[in-house]
Amino acid sequence: MSLFANNFSRIMPMPLHSFFLLIVWLMLNTTLSLGHILLGSVLAIVIPLLCAPLRVPQPKVKRPLKAISYALVVLKDIVVANIEVALLVIGPMNKIKPGFVAVPIDLTGTLPVTVLASTVTMTPGTVSADISKDEKWLYVHVLNLPNDEQEVIDLIKQRYESRVKEIFGC
Amino acid sequence: MSFYTELLISILLLSGGVFVLVGSIGLLRLQDFYARLHAPTKATTLGLGGILIGSMVYMYHLQGYVSINELLITLFLVITAPVTAHILAKVAMHHRVKLIERTSNQDIVEIARKQLPVKVSNSSQKSHLKGTDHEV
Fold first, then answer.
1. Does A127 touch chain B (CB under 8 A)?
2. Which of A88, A153, A158, B58 is exposed most, by the fewest CB atoms within 10 A?
3. What is the pLDDT of residue B7?
4. Which of B68, B86, B111, B128 is the best residue to mutate to test the A interface, defined by the most A CB atoms within 10 Å of its own CB?
């Protein structure tokens, strides 16, 4: 049994990735014909084999249900962000006070940090600009910085970081 | 196609178009590089989202099943847009792109470039920079 498992992981080092590659291939072609299933399967096996040595070990998603609720929260914030930014863009330019803030992050691993940085970019008036080398600080550009910049930092930490932390359990 | 589906599709397409237009206006009007980054990354996600949903509704009424291509476009958009914005902002920081004068905390650009420790007003967080010995 363990021999089988060993061989399996040698042929398919990333089974989940292989599965998604096949699905996305079929979706891109919008077909379920045998030819495309075969071609997709070959790609789904060969691409992970080539990419496996490049992989950096990542923390696993511990609570997938939390991830769904996180996605919904972010989706709602994206809609709000769009309207806010649209109003700022149309309004008078000299009222906009941009600024930088440095947000301390407590996450470990590149995947959680990437998720947080991407969320910050997608949501209200903030773009993540850089991450310090030790992954302890996220530098964020804010389109309209309120007088109390701690507000922005607290929002990112409480609304997004705590949820990402729960998802990955780190 | 009934009047109401046509109305729904028109509303989705129009609101999407308005947001894409606002994104482009933002590119024109905002005053420095960083501020300009905000317009396309945000206004276009909802704008394109609206157009794509409109397209999905239209294709559903035309073919009888939900077209998957729009979902894929959304997926690729959501993955690539923040990464592009992040890389552009990072490059701008490291090239010291000109900022408008009223930008607050401009020192963070230098802090990020030289990897200096951040000065925090409440000293609860300490930043320790050990260089390159972070484990993978």
1. yes
2. A158
3. 94
4. B86
